[in-house]
Amino acid sequence: MRVAAGANHVLENAPLAPDLPAAIADCQLVLGATARRRDVPMEEIDAREAAARALAAAREGREVALVFGNERTGLENDEIKRCHAAVLIPSDPDFPSLNLAQAVQVLAYEVRMAVLAGASPLPEQKSDPPASSAELDAFFEHLERTLEAIDFHKGRSPRTIMLRLRRLYLRAQPDLRELRILHGILSDSERIASLARAKDE
To answer: Which residues of 144-159 are buried (b: 16+ CB within 10 A; e: fewer)?
Structure first.
């Protein structure tokens, strides 16, 4: 609180969530700050690009989250997989990690500079904004169940396949109407798989 310098009310009124999924449930753009390369490829952008994207999305009326890991370990794989892109701050390769306060300050600075530079009027809000993080999580759970129901994996790693599919759909940023179509496809696939199993019995 001592370093808030007149912004105590911001900290005092900040909402608290029990975990990351709950914190970003209503967000339609999630950017995660990390210094580590991940085992599943994902888009990597610098802090300036992250600020530009965050501002553009906010101007469209979308909920945006900038996600930071804890001081000791940074973002874990299960946390970064929920992000649309990884934000890399170009530091010395021999000392890539910043402490939490530094990383937050760099991204906050870039967002502020993007706001000050953005003199263009706000774009019209899209009629069908991208699905929220919670809606995507429900879809990913349905997708995982369906892949198991149709015996898709056949000895391949379910974890790796699901991580790659997450990346695919997070890049696509489907809206809720598109997710309903995908849910319908998955439900029909589950139904047909169930009928096939019953016939074999």
So the answer is: bebbebeeeeeeeeee
Q: Could you report the per-residue pLDDT of 7-32, keeping only the tens digit for each?
A: 777 778 888 899 999 999 999 999 99
Chosen CATH of 133-200 out of 3.40.50.1220, 3.40.50.150, 1.10.8.590, 1.10.3720.10: 1.10.8.590
Q: Quote the pTM value.
A: 0.76
Structural class in CATH, domain 8-117: alpha beta
Write the DSSP symbol of residue 175.
B
pLDDT digits (tens, 9 = 90+) for 140-187: 999 999 999 999 988 888 888 999 999 999 999 999 999 999 999 999
Q: Give the helix/strand (H/E) hosting 105.
A: helix 100-117
Cβ-based neighbours of 89, under 8 Å, separated by 6 or more = 33, 35, 46, 47, 98, 103, 106, 107
Instruction: State whether the Cα torsion 160-148-172-51 is positive or negative.
Output: negative
Residue ranges of the domains in the chain? 8-117, 133-200
Angle between helices 133-149 and 176-200 (to 10 degrees): 20
Contact 50, 90 (CB under 8 A): no
